[in-house]
Amino acid sequence: MVDYFEFEESDEVEFIMRSRSNSYKGGILNFVSALDLSCNNLRNETPSEIGYLNGIIAINLSHNMIIGPIPRTLSNITQIVSLDLSYYKLSWEIPFEMSIFYSLEVFKVTHNNLFGKTPEMKNQFLMFSNTSYEGNPFPCGPPLSRLCSSNKESTIPLATTSIGVNRNNDNDMAAFFISFATSYIVFFLGFAEIFYINPYW
Q1: How does strand 67-68 pair with strand 138-140?
Q2: Does 81 reside within a domain?
Q3: Under a CB-based contact definition with an 8 Å cutoff, are residues 135 and 111 in contact?
Q4: Range of the domain at 164
Q5: How far apart are CA 177 and CA 198, in angstroms?
Q6: Local confidence pLDDT in tens for the 201 residues of the chain
Q7: Kind plus residue range of the DSSP H or E element containing 184
Q8: How far apart are the first and last CA of the chain?
Q9: Quick count: other Cβ atoms within 10 Å of Cβ 60?
């Protein structure tokens, strides 16, 4: 049998979240909870079950080797204040359901491989600037300067760019060969004309 631990009115805890320190004292400590698994070399995908920790107010999973998408179940944690998923190996789009957060004060998904449209600029997401998305070359939409296009070109800029570069290279090579062939023919015809005019040469 596991006994449930309760804090007393005289207990005080300093809670540090993203370099911001808050002191909690007394009975409120029974309602404050956080999950910090940063810098643990965790691998595989983020478990969707993390979204069932609906009493948690802070999650820090930064600096790990976790791959795959951000679980949509995170939107179940309606009281969350701080979410740090930076320096991950995340890919896929940021779930649009996350725009429903009303308490979120810190949101960091920097230095991943996320792409697609950023969450809608409403509720707490009105507060977040492009610094929340730094190090992701693919996302589009506000607050980022990259605009989303209807044909999803913006979600795959690398492929589009490389195709454009290849086309430019093909055009350059074709122009080079045409100019080389033209110069060779002109040079040959010039010599032929000289020999025709003066056969003693």
Answers
A1: unpaired
A2: yes
A3: yes
A4: 156-201
A5: 32
A6: 334 456 566 666 666 555 566 666 666 666 668 888 888 888 888 888 888 887 888 898 899 998 888 989 988 998 888 899 999 888 888 888 888 888 888 899 999 998 889 998 888 898 899 999 999 988 999 999 888 876 544 444 444 344 444 444 555 666 766 777 777 787 777 767 776 776 665
A7: helix 157-197
A8: 112
A9: 20
Residues 108 and 127 placed together within one structural domain of the fold: yes
What is the distance between the alpha carbons of residues 12 and 27, in angstroms, rounded to a whole number? 10
Query: Is residue 172 domain-shared with residue 118, that is, in the same domain?
Result: no
Cα 118 to the center of its chain, rounded Å = 9
CA 133 vs CA 27, 76, 106, 111: distances in Å: 36, 22, 12, 7
Q: How far is CA 63 from the centre of its chain?
A: 14
Cα(109)–Cα(106) distance, integer angstroms:
10
Same domain, 45 and 114: yes
CA dihedral 105, 69, 98, 22 (to 10 degrees): -20
Cα separation, 6 vs 69, in Å, equals 36
Cα–Cα distance, 106 to 60 (Å, whole number): 10
Q: What type of residue is 119?
A: P
- Cα pseudo-dihedral 193, 194, 200, 201, rounded to 10: -130
- Whats the size of the chain, residue-wise? 201
Give the DSSP letter of residue 111. S
